[in-house]
Amino acid sequence: MKSTPTARRQKGAEVSLAVADFLRHLRERNSSLHTIKAYRGDLANFAAYAGQRGWKDLDHVAIRGFLSQLYEKGLGKTSVARSLAAVRSLYKWLAREGVVAQNPAKLVSTPKLAKKLPRVPTIEEMNGVLDGPMPGVAAFPERDRLMLELLYGCGVRNSELTGINLDDIHASAEIILIRGKGKKERYVPFGGSAAQALALYLPQRQKVFQETQKNTNALLVNRRGGRLTTRSVGRIIKKVAVAKGLSPDVHPHTLRHAFGTHMLEEGADLRAIQELLGHERLATTQRYTQLSLKHVLQVYDQTHPRAK
Prior knowledge:
Oligomer: single chain
Strand order of the largest sheet: 1-2-3
């Protein structure tokens, strides 16, 4: 088998050394920072569990033991499933590098997760959030309205929203360059409502720079003139949306789900929605067919001659 830096090192901490190499590989591939952060935590737990054992001592039974340990620590099925996915990815890379001959994690079943579909606000509810003045809890109303318009009007992820730069917006064509997962780029259109919100926000953004003596290419900024963080976006969206009557469990991804669901309900092609959302696989987009099943049944009942 091929000898790699990891394979040539002493066996004392074989797994932890391999994990470090794997994370370095992910960084070099420009993998998502969120993915790397999640893998780092999950694989650190696996390395700690492996201890001084080498790859020959870690079969599928040992990996099941690792998952059992996670359950004993109080982790839920979702977290355990994510840890198993991280271990599988590590082994897949090790096999490609010639360190191991097979992937024992493939023999371990993924914990069965309850199929919980997110509760998506109705079109009427979303119009209620976006129409009319912003509530008093909005500390920067022009910016906060634009955030809502882009999350719901373009279906972008929270991380994609905060990554938008001013020169990514092509106002004449009404499109925005979005940098998605794995640094993949796509263009998404934005409508008249978002354009109006943008026109109202930009002068206020400039005022922030005049007051703070700062400048940045970031589209969305805080009152100190810095780029808005995903954590801040989540907090602001929840505060504004709840004040406008939405459920307290609302978050930026809720608006992305609403974008996909409502487009499907209004007759958009599933592949077009896939492109707009930046989904790599159509299967991911097809979740919205489950979210819209009630609507589909209503259409059938109202339109098919044999349903009446």
